[in-house]
Structures are given as C-alpha cells and as structure tokens.
Amino acid sequence: MASPVLSFRVEEILAQQLDQLAAATDRDRQYHLKRALVRYVEAESWHLQSIGEGIADADAGKLTDLDAVKAKWANRAESRTDRESRE
Questions:
Q1: CA atoms of 53 and 60, how far apart (whole Å)
Q2: How far apart are CA 87 and CA 76, in angstroms?
Q3: Alpha-carbon distance 42 to 40, whole Å?
Q4: Do the Cβ atoms of 29 and 18 come closer than 8 Å?
Q5: d(Cα 16, Cα 18) in Å, to the nearest integer?
Q6: pLDDT of residue 83
Q7: Are the CB atoms for 21 and 32 separated by under 8 Å?
Q8: Taking residues 48-55, what's their average pLDDT?
Q9: For range 53-78, the mean pLDDT
C-alpha cells in the first residue's frame, strides 16, 4: 500500500536549514521531516492524553488543593536553592 503524500509550504530559510541538515547527515529531507513529524505527533498526543486524564480525575473529584501545590513547589525551590548554595 502506498504511503500518503503530504505537502506544505515553509519559509525559504527553513528549507535551506533542512537542506543543510540533510547534507551534513547524508540523509534526505524526507528522513528528517518524518523524524520531526513523528516526534511532534508523539509529544502532542501525550499532551492531549494527559489533559484527558486530568479532566477525568477532576470529574472524579481527585483534586489537589492549590495551597498544597504551591507549598510543594516552594519546598522544591527552597531545596534546590539550599543544594546549590552548598556546592
């Protein structure tokens, strides 16, 4: 079965940079475009899935108090600052 063909326009500078990358790695444009698209789709799919899980948790009443979240991040920042000052 033939693969679908995708076509889109990009700025000239981006096409030039892609060509430089392709030449430097001895790969063609298609190789790099496929890799970039796979990575993008995986990242966006993960993001959408995580949002869905968060909404489901919220609908189920599994929520964390805002003050608890703030305290966690404040403690984390303080620990990082303490650790860096000791180094």
A1: 10
A2: 17
A3: 5
A4: yes
A5: 5
A6: 76
A7: yes
A8: 97
A9: 94
Read off the amino acid at residue 29: R
**Nearest by Cα to 35 from 45, 26, 27:** 27
The pLDDT mean for the chain works out to 94
Delimit the domains of the chain by residue range.
12-86
Residue reference for tokens 């700025």: 11
- pTM score of the predicted model: 0.65
Q: What is the pLDDT of residues 18-44, one digit of tens each?
A: 999 999 999 999 999 999 999 999 999
- Radius of gyration of the chain, Cα coordinates, nearest whole angstrom: 22
* pLDDT attached to residue 82: 76
For 27, residues 6+ apart whose C-beta sits below 8 A from its C-beta are: 21
| Rounded CA separation 8/62 (Å) | 42
Per-residue DSSP letter, 4: P
